[in-house]
Amino acid sequence: MGDLREIGTLRTHSHMMRHRGLAASGNATALAVASGRDSHPLECHKQDMDNTTLLLFVTATFVLAGFVKGVIGLGLPTIAVGILGVVMAPAQAAALLVVPNLVTNGWQIATGPKLLSTLRRLWPMLATICLGTWAGAGLLQQQKDGSATLWLGAALILYALVGLKAAKLRVPPGWEGWLGPVIGFTTGVVTAATGVFVLPAVPYLQALGFDKDELVQALGISFIVSTLALSFGLIGAGALNGTVAWQSLLALVPALIGMGGGQFIRSRISPATFKICFFAGLLALGAYLCWRSLA
What we know:
It is a single chain. The chain is an all-alpha fold. The protein has one domain (42-294). It is built from 15 helices and no strands. Helix 4 (51-72) runs antiparallel to helix 5 and helix 8 (115-135) packs across helix 11. The chain is globular. The chain starts with a helix and ends with a helix.
């Protein structure tokens, strides 16, 4: 998203925006420029969208992703990167998610019951998440042949299958000392390659025997550490700068609106029923992204 590319995009759309009376929509242009013009297998979708359409698409994506997170405590980066990958490179989508991830997961952490004891239990996994993410730094930015989208689709499929199976995994207490760092490093590498934090950290955390509130807090801790680690990698790769950080801040608004709505719905419908629909949707989305990248 260099300056020349931004200027070119603005010039291309300036006449159309004036004709529509959108001269005051600076924020719309800023978010739309976030889609960039990088070489990407899905470039044709971006060329078919004007700035206003892209802004509406991004806004709706963050509302949906925030809603899912509000209901089940996770899914913001999974949904957002998966859907935004249809119109922009995964690195760009991951960069837009930095501020919404930090704030929504901070919200989860602050409302949890046992922060210090959870941190003491999970710190080996959290430390190796950082190491794995930094070891794979630049993977999102460097992969221009669609392989990042393929890995993202595969991760979504695996995660959906685990969720649909609802397997009751349990980690013996004696295994946490060595298994936690392995899970953390693997999660970091997957995060660096796809921008999604869920595998294999989420199944591992679910297998540790946390109760409902502790699990939601543990997920928030894991996700916020992954977000911070990925942010450094994106900065080093040139995908995250001051302009993108501002655009990410704008994306926080629809994410919080969706999250608030999801929390409202959580107390009024069966979470089990919603999870089935959620994981089935992820399975379909992952299959679509894999098909697109392979095609």
